[in-house]
Design a protein that fits this description.
about 140 residues; mainly alpha; two-stranded antiparallel sheet; 5 helices; flat
Length: about 140
């Protein structure tokens, strides 16, 4: 795809916008779900948006020799969930100008929401860490 998009920049732009709209549509579908508490949605939305964007750029914007390998993907998941949990627990999430709080700090939520949200972050982080450890030791053998 990289070589094709290097020759056809207009199509790259159109596909970029289409993928962005698809990611935002997926986020809107998740955000509109009545079964998920707004507090629980944050880790899911962060991961869908960030990993969807990384996947698209990695596939179309990088030559085959420069693409991220599995360890790089796992590292991204660790960073997204580690920083997301830190922000979510301490200050919450604000708008770009910092004037309006989108989501308050996690500790102001009901206890069950706190437990489930921290569990989601922890499972995603621990799963990525465990897979990275397994891959590292598998390569040694």
């Amino acid at each position: 795809m990289y070589d094709f998009f290097q020759r056809h920049r207009f199509l790259e732009g159109v596909c970029g916008w289409a993928v962005l709209i698809a990611i935002v549509g997926a986020l809107a579908a998740l955000a509109g779900s009545r079964g998920l508490s707004p507090v629980w949605r944050v880790p899911l939305l962060l991961n869908v948006f960030a990993l969807g964007g990384f996947a698209y750029v990695n596939f179309t914007g990088e030559p085959a020799g420069n693409r991220m390998n599995t360890a790089d993907w796992l590292n991204r998941i660790q960073w997204i969930n580690g920083l997301g949990l830190l922000l979510h627990v301490t200050i919450g999430f604000f708008t770009r100008d910092g004037m309006r709080q989108l989501l308050p700090s996690l500790w102001s939520a009901p206890v069950m929401d706190v437990v489930i949200t921290v569990s989601i972050y922890a499972l995603l982080f621990a799963g990525a860490t465990t897979l990275a450890w397994v891959l590292k030791h598998h390569r040694k053998n």
